[in-house]
Design goal:
- Chains A, B: Residues 155-218, 219-275 form the CBS domain.
- Chains A, B: It is a multi-pass membrane protein.
- The structure is a homodimer of 465-residue chains.
- Chain A folds into three domains: 2-146, MgtE N-terminal domain-like (MgtE N-terminal fold); 160-279, CBS-domain; 295-464, Orthogonal Bundle (Tetracycline Repressor, domain 2), CATH 1.10.357.20.
- With 465 residues, chain A is mainly alpha-helical.
- The model of chain A has no long low-confidence stretch (mean pLDDT 88).
- Chain A is built from 21 helices and six strands.
- At the A-B interface, helix 12, helix 13, helix 15, helix 16 and helix 17 of A face helix 12, helix 13, helix 15, helix 16 and helix 17 of B.
């Protein structure tokens, strides 16, 4: 009965209207646990994907979550904890018994283990270290040593290794033995005596090779690779560009120290995209969950740009103050002020967004600038004329034909300049080897605002007085 | 000699300062081809990854590009063409001989073949169809029939299939035979008589299973799957959430019709992210390369929102017009107008960006709203007070203590309201089952602008007159 009810909720969950279903599944599990129906709960959890089990368990009240986790096999527990959010991981780890945590960490994939370890407080870390095996301890130290945002911080050390002199048949047997521990066995790495990378072979190539052919003759000796101190997005970009399942990571002495798997590369891309979103919106680098962040952290990430833009906008204010006489003589001009300066910023932001993203995906390259610039002029004039036409009648109604002419000319000029600034800034940033994403929205808007004020009132003071 | 020079350029290319290197490699290849050093060129191209070969060949002048392509094996050519941009694909396909194109398409992966076919003009399509095999023709028709943005438009039909009664050893032999044609052999699909999906098995599970165990006993009978008419982002999200290498696609009658591979899912994510970027920036759905788009296409994608925002800003203008008397009496207030209305928009855009992205990645859920709202109030007040302090002295200098007080109170109120609008809109959109990304930037800015004008001059007219 309960089982059937849960299965129905599960299909809702899978249909991605998941949130309400999640809460109801959690309630149902709490009820079943209270009635000691542990077998029922286990059977249900085992019918789910572990990523979904993680979401469900995160919903459970403290105590019940540990009970539910303990119903799973150690292997599933180890994978499960990798799916938790950072805060849930730590909360669960802190409440598990010491030896329970030690055996769980022994079963976790190496990169997730290191990530968890780094988040524990120092007392917990010091309590854990002596309980781990020497190999685990050293692996943890190595993986935790890398700086955030580097390839080292996202790689894992549980990769499959083969000797170059093995035949393809023996290599497959060797991979079979490594299947339990390695993050992937679809790629295997061939290393020499001092761990230098000799080549990479895919399981697919091993399977299709003649049975007696040696690994050394099948392997790719010039594989795409990445270095441990490269920025993490270099790994993500290469995995995507070359359609890889994993990418070998070398240290400064070209020894193999880890791999970045495709799913970890996808997580990196997601982080980088989030960063690009934030950059375009004046939020400073901010390496944590928005849901978990403290007020202070969020304040810090936001205040710098806001204050900077306040001072940027003082120039617009100064522009207005400079034209006070013109304004006092024609107060009806003020009606069009917000509209004109916003239009320059809007058109500019559109151009900037298109360019930032196209440069990021490689759709547009630096040398396309000239061609795109002349196209942008044509588009911006067309946009400006349309927008001028849209306000023409309102111009006549509010201020007469003269004001309408001023507004129309100002609109076309402001939209054109805004669009050209918006399209050029990302290129300029890219040429200066800055991230084009920093050139979007707010910077463009501020520049367009100042220019808008000056252009509008200059045209007005020439034509009206 | 030439070879060594090319290899040096290659390492530059790999170091991701690629663009200049690309051009020089292309020049070098043109020179070598002019001197009839085809073997040299072939050897160099073969030492590159195909994704890089594609970039190099796209740089070559017409004629030389075909010569270079023809130096590669048919298998490499087929993979190569999938790496070209759409415009380059079509240009090359139109210049190849009919039978050359037919054999190339025969060797391409099914999804890339369908994508290429869809882009050819009708004459070319009609010329090609009779030359293809019946199976290819039907496959093309099936894959081309799906609407854009659906899972069907990104799936491929060259997946590996196994019978449920095979032993694991026989299954591996069967996969070996399918390795040349299948897009991946790391997952295999077990289907029944009417192509209904019975289960999925990974090569890893087959390798680690006892040799005589039957596929039916190893396979996952409740795999994560997707339907052919689901939106393509459903496939991308599931691949990422469940860390899959491929995802089976079923039709309305639950028959297996294709798979979406992880690398195609990554491409979809990239498209979707681009869409989110555009949505946040008033660009309408726009399904092509920015570099290749015509003026008309770009104009259409941009004009709707720009004109809409013009009319939105008329409300701000009307607000100003309503307070004309207050302004005429205190012209110094105008100095602070751009600064105050921009600040509300800036703070609001920050909040919106944080929420849109956090909702998209699942970091924040709908039910977190209440908790986040009270946190946002605290942050916004802190931000507003800091920003008010920043302009305090300027307020005194430009307008005296009274104007400074008006500006400070207005700043705090405007920033608070802007931030609350910016954080609430994405949630409201999500509850209404609209895409939260549409709630960002411009909408928030326009609302904040109008409110800013009204709040500022209301406070001024109360306190100053």
């Amino acid at each position: 009965m309960a089982q059937r009810f849960l299965i129905e909720l599960l299909s809702e969950l899978k249909a991605e209207k998941g949130e309400a279903a999640l809460e109801r599944i959690a309630e149902e599990i709490v009820r079943l646990l209270a009635e000691d129906e542990q077998t029922e709960v286990r059977r249900f959890l085992e019918s789910l994907e572990l990523a979904d089990v993680a979401s469900v368990i995160e919903e459970l009240p403290q105590g019940d979550d540990l009970t539910a986790i303990r119903l799973l096999s150690l292997h599933d527990q180890a994978e499960l904890i990798g799916h938790f959010r950072a805060s849930a991981q730590v909360s669960v780890a802190e409440r598990l018994g010491k030896w329970e945590l030690v055996s769980l960490m022994g079963a976790m994939s190496h990169d997730e283990r290191a990530d968890l370890f780094k988040q524990l407080d120092e007392t917990a870390q010091e309590m854990l270290l002596p309980a781990l095996s020497k190999a685990e301890r050293e692996d943890l130290r190595r993986l935790s040593a890398h700086e955030e945002w580097t390839v080292g911080s996202v790689m894992t050390s549980d990769y499959a290794v083969l000797a170059p002199e093995l035949t393809s048949t023996d290599a497959i047997t060797a991979l079979r033995r490594q299947a339990l521990d390695a993050e992937t066995i679809y790629y295997a790495y061939i290393i020499g005596e001092s761990r230098e990378l000799l080549g990479v072979v895919s399981l697919r190539d091993l399977l299709t090779a003649p049975p007696r052919q040696r690994v050394a003759d099948i392997m790719d000796t010039e594989p795409v690779l990445v270095h441990v101190n490269d920025p993490q997005e270099a790994a993500a970009r290469r995995v995507a560009r070359y359609d890889l399942l994993a990418l070998p990571v070398l240290d400064e002495d070209d020894r193999l120290v880890g791999i970045v798997t495709a799913d970890d590369a996808m997580d990196v891309s997601e982080e980088e995209v989030t960063e690009d979103f934030h950059k375009g919106s004046t939020i400073q680098r901010f390496d944590m969950s928005v849901a978990d962040a403290t007020i202070t952290k969020l304040y810090r990430a936001r205040i710098f740009w806001l204050v900077l833009l306040v001072f940027g906008n003082i120039f617009s204010g100064a522009g207005i103050a400079y034209f006070e006489e013109t304004i006092a003589a024609h107060l009806s001009l003020l009606f069009f002020l917000p509209l004109l300066i916003a239009s320059g910023g809007n058109a500019g932001t559109q151009s900037a967004t298109l360019m930032v993203r196209a440069l990021a995906t490689g759709d547009v390259r630096l040398r396309d600038f000239g061609r795109l610039l002349s196209r942008e002029v044509a588009i911006a004039v067309a946009l400006g004329v349309t927008m001028a036409a849209a306000v023409w009648l309102i111009g006549i109604w509010r201020g007469g034909i003269e004001v309408a002419i001023v507004v129309a000319i100002a609109m076309i000029t402001i939209v054109l300049l805004g669009a050209l600034i918006g399209m050029s800034l990302p290129f300029i940033f890219a040429i200066l080897e800055k991230d084009p994403a920093a050139a979007s929205g707010p910077l463009v808007t501020s520049l367009a605002d100042v220019l808008g004020v000056i252009i509008y009132f200059t045209i007005a003071s020439v034509l009206l007085i």
